[in-house]
């Protein structure tokens, strides 16, 4: 920044820099402390959880994981699998349906495009609660309650407008020369979409896939409503019934299974945080 | 921007060739048909899962409907009942309190941390990740369970308080504090708006600061005359987004209060009460009236936000 810094300024700026880092680190520790404490508590015996606020585990006892895993009527991986099936189909559905719509909005000229685009944006603000009652009525008439269909089929019909918007923003930023060159070579829209735009949109697709997975994995409201049969329960619904059933007598086991439920999100966060933060930033602009 | 302008500059000889231009950026009935083909999934989803349900819930809001019998027309009775329903009033109060306290706290934290991180801090991406992680986790049942323990009678907070010789209450089961634990949980998710603020700060051209430097502006002047005005569109964007989101909070209040919204309805968020009426007692007509009211409240507040924005959001020129 400044080129002619005097000697005194250097030492004050260094101490300011250090104190800033100290502040940022202390704040980060406070932020993460509950998570770290949950992890360390999950490997402590239950009676210690209520006495030990430190995050240093005094002993390594995996009993909570073993007992928690089989505390419900199905082993815990059964619920993880149910969640994973829904999340994977949701990801595939969103990627296909939202990218088709996004291509049309970003690259084609057709009558009513601006109107439809505005309608799509308006649905971004729509609370799910306005839709859930009639959707429930519809799904119960189709006999879809207690199946995965209410959680999967809408994803194949571009119901998550947020991802259309995200992909439109991204595709608009791709150079048009590429489309035009492809057209000169005789490609139609379907080939341009699939052979040119899709491969170039991998960052936007990755962002959409990660967010879809994480939000579906965390989703509780619609899974609670559409999946009442305990054999279909997903991980969050099962966890919640675990808590209400065993109550506060089994915190260690509850913590252990809660952590198991968070592991996939944490893994995807580590693998794809670049896409998550970039995706979040691009939706705010342009 | 004109969509006609493709890659070729208007002056280019290729571009003056109308047939080529039409070939590169075609329009007409055939193009319409292909466009609609691409949009077909979205059209179907829009009609079946969005527009249909919106209209259906408007209709249902004027009926009594329990799924067992066909809906029975009631006129405005559900809305009249809402005016006289003390739990509904309580849930509205709880929700407004929650939104108007938790969103400002979350955004102020987000802005403060973004400003701290902005000016070339070493390890920026590390800090950003640490602060952002809770935003991804906070919506889960796992974290709600954790919160219930942390703020319980023998929870983490009270263990620390005990070290200072203070005996804490059970925060989650105290009517004065239970909602506060949810506000803290929402504040914990400041990372998502912070990431958006950081991206916004990066868009401010450094030349503005250099020019101000030349004019002798200090740090404070630069902050109030450059950073803040240029950041107001982002603040506005985050405000609208987080407010709409906060109105729809459900999972945390549901899990922390065991589905009840207690103690003494102090965490009975509007969506939680809607769930109880719609899917606890299958009072679908009443729940629809509540849903439509929520839609109108969110639309009105968003509209108000946009109106007020003219007074404080700076859009440059």
UniProtKB/TrEMBL annotation, chain A:
Q: Which GO terms describe its cellular component?
A: plasma membrane
Which Pfam families does this one have? BPD_transp_1
InterPro entries with a match to the protein in the record:
MetI-like, MetI-like_sf
- Which compartments does it reside in? Cell membrane
This protein's record includes keyword Transmembrane: yes
Q: Name one GO biological process term.
A: transmembrane transport
Keywords carried by this UniProt record = Cell membrane, Membrane, Transmembrane, Transmembrane helix, Transport
This protein's record includes keyword Membrane? yes
Bilayer-spanning residue ranges: 21-39, 79-103, 115-139, 151-171, 192-217, 250-271
Q: Where is the ABC transmembrane type-1 domain?
A: 80-272
Q: How does it sit in the membrane?
A: Multi-pass membrane protein
Tree of life domain:
Bacteria
Which protein family is named in the record?
Answer: Belongs to the binding-protein-dependent transport system permease family.
Q: What is this protein called?
A: Sugar ABC transporter permease
- Which organism does this record belong to? Nonomuraea glycinis
């Amino acid at each position: 920044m400044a080129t002619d810094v005097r000697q005194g300024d250097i030492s004050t700026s260094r101490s300011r820099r250090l104190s800033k880092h100290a502040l940022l680190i202390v704040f980060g520790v406070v932020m993460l402390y509950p998570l770290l404490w949950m992890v360390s508590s999950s490997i402590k015996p239950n009676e210690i959880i209520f006495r030990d606020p430190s995050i240093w585990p005094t002993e390594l006892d995996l009993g909570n994981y073993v007992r928690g895993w089989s505390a419900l009527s199905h082993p815990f991986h059964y619920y993880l699998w149910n969640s994973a099936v829904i999340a994977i189909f949701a990801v595939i559905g969103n990627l296909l349906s939202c990218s088709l719509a996004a291509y049309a909005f970003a690259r084609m000229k057709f009558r009513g495009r601006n109107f439809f685009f505005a309608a799509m944006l308006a649905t971004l603000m729509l609370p799910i609660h306005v839709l859930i009652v009639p959707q429930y009525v519809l799904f119960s008439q189709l006999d879809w309650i207690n199946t995965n269909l209410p959680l999967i089929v809408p994803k194949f019909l571009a119901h998550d407008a947020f991802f259309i918007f995200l992909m439109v923003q991204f595709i608009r930023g791709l150079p048009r020369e590429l489309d035009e060159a492809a057209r000169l070579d005789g490609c139609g829209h379907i080939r341009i979409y699939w052979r040119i735009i899709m491969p170039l949109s991998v960052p936007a697709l990755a962002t959409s896939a990660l967010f879809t997975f994480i939000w579906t994995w965390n989703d509780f409201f619609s899974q609670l409503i559409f999946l009442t049969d305990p054999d279909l329960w997903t991980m969050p619904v099962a966890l919640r019934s675990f808590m209400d059933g065993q109550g506060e007598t089994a915190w260690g086991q509850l913590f252990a299974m809660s952590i198991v439920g968070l592991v996939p999100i944490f893994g995807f966060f580590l693998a794809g945080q670049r896409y998550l933060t970039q995706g979040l930033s691009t939706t705010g602009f342009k | 921007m004109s969509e006609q302008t493709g890659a070729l500059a208007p002056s280019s000889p290729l571009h003056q060739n109308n047939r080529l231009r039409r070939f590169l950026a075609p329009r007409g009935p055939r193009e319409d048909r292909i466009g609609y083909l691409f949009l077909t999934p979205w059209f179907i989803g829009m009609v079946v899962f969005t527009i249909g349900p919106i209209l259906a819930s408007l209709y249902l809001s004027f009926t009594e409907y329990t799924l067992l019998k066909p809906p029975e027309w009631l006129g405005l009775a559900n809305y009249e009942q809402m005016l006289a329903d003390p739990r509904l009033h309580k849930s509205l109060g709880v929700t407004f309190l929650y939104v108007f306290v938790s969103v400002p706290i979350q955004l102020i934290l987000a802005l403060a941390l973004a400003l701290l991180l902005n000016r070339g801090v070493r390890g920026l991406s590390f800090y950003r990740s640490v602060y952002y992680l809770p935003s991804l986790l906070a919506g889960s049942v796992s974290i709600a369970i954790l919160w219930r323990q942390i703020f319980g009678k023998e929870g983490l907070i009270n263990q620390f308080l005990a070290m200072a010789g203070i005996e804490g209450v059970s925060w989650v089961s105290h009517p004065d504090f239970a909602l506060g634990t949810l506000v803290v949980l929402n504040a914990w998710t400041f990372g998502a708006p912070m990431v958006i603020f950081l991206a916004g700060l990066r868009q401010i051209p450094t030349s503005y600061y250099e020019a101000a430097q030349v004019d002798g502006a200090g740090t404070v002047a630069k902050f109030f005359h450059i950073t803040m005005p240029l950041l107001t569109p982002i603040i506005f964007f985050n405000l609208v987004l987080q407010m709409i989101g906060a109105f729809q909070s459900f999972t945390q209040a549901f899990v922390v209060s065991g589905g009840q919204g207690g103690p003494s309805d102090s965490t009975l968020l509007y969506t939680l009460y809607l769930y109880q009426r719609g899917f606890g007692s299958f009072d679908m007509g009443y729940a629809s009236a509540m849903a439509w009211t929520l839609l109108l409240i969110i639309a009105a507040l968003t509209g108000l936000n946009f109106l007020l924005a003219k007074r404080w959001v700076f859009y440059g020129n």
